[in-house]
């Protein structure tokens, strides 16, 4: 993870914490699905964070998950879990359950890291943000991309103005998930927007804050009825534009770029996971940052950010401020409205 230099230009190195140093918090895991398992595995393999409790709707499922991952306490209700002696709750249930379960944790006085999207709908997202702020508790949407070393490089490139004025952004994500019942079921919040569209909307909004959705079109899957793929055009008052697309009907390149007046930054596939950063200038000079593509084993970076913030007494993360989460959920809602894709 070293910086690159060529012809006097320098690509910054990542500015990230030591995973085995810093505050070691006691984590409670609310939910026992695939992402919860990957999150726990990442923390246990690479950090000094302690996963001490897990909760599910049944004791049997909680005990099974606890046994699989060496967790000392298992609870058969989410109410019992958030009442436990822990430092922070990771909410990893279904999209449509995030609001109720994050509310449960906040009402119990627990800081929360909430899987993306924080909630699919803007009204519920605002209610969660208002609740966290009223109670003075830390809350963060778990968009793990933004905590990765790769994205530390991206942020610094933008902050240093290496690209010049950013004029265009593009992000694409596609993974064939038509056989994944939950991901395709509209009654469970399934469809391309919540499961993978969050990433492309997040990327556009992070690279060009202040965008609005100008046009959007989605294609419904003929069997499931959910929006299986969509394309959207976004813009702002300065004429800058972003194009985003997401598909659960096919595997697509899953790349992204940020184009500026001086250079273009490119993120090869998958753009939202660990990987390289390439900056190419108009004169042909190219700088690159290399990082192994370790996928979900790197979920721990978002936990480290939450732990750092909580220990420092912060109620929001500068990597994912709550207003940025609200802006992203708003973009998702704007696109849904244009596509005729209301939430259940």
Number of helices, where a helix is a run of at least 4 consecutive DSSP H or I residues: 10
Could you list the spans in which at least 5 consecutive residues all have pLDDT below 50?
none
Distance between the termini: 44 Å
What is the rounded Rg? 20 Å
Tell me what you see in this structure:
The chain has 344 residues and is of the alpha/beta class. 33% of the residues lie in helices and 25% in strands. It contains ten helices and 16 strands. It has helices spanning 34-46, 59-69, 78-82, 98-107, 122-135, 149-159, 181-184, 192-207, 300-311, 322-339, and strands at residues 4-6, 9-11, 26-30, 50-55, 73-75, 88-91, 112-115, 139-142, 166-174, 212-220, 227-235, 241-247, 256-260, 263-267, 277-281, 286-289. The strands form three sheets. The chain has an eight-stranded mixed β-sheet, covered by helices on one side. A six-stranded parallel β-sheet has the order 5-4-3-6-7-8, sandwiched between helices. β4, α2 and β5 (73-75) form a beta-alpha-beta unit.
Keywords:
single chain, 344 residues, alpha/beta, 16 strands, globular
Topology:
Elements: E1 4-6, E2 9-11, E3 26-30, H1 34-46, E4 50-55, H2 59-69, E5 73-75, H3 78-82, E6 88-91, H4 98-107, E7 112-115, H5 122-135, E8 139-142, H6 149-159, E9 166-174, H7 181-184, H8 192-207, E10 212-220, E11 227-235, E12 241-247, E13 256-260, E14 263-267, E15 277-281, E16 286-289, H9 300-311, H10 322-339
Parallel strand pairs: 3-4, 3-6, 4-5, 6-7, 7-8, 9-12
Antiparallel strand pairs: 1-2, 9-13, 10-11, 11-12, 13-14, 14-15, 15-16
Helix pairs in contact: 4-5, 5-10, 8-10
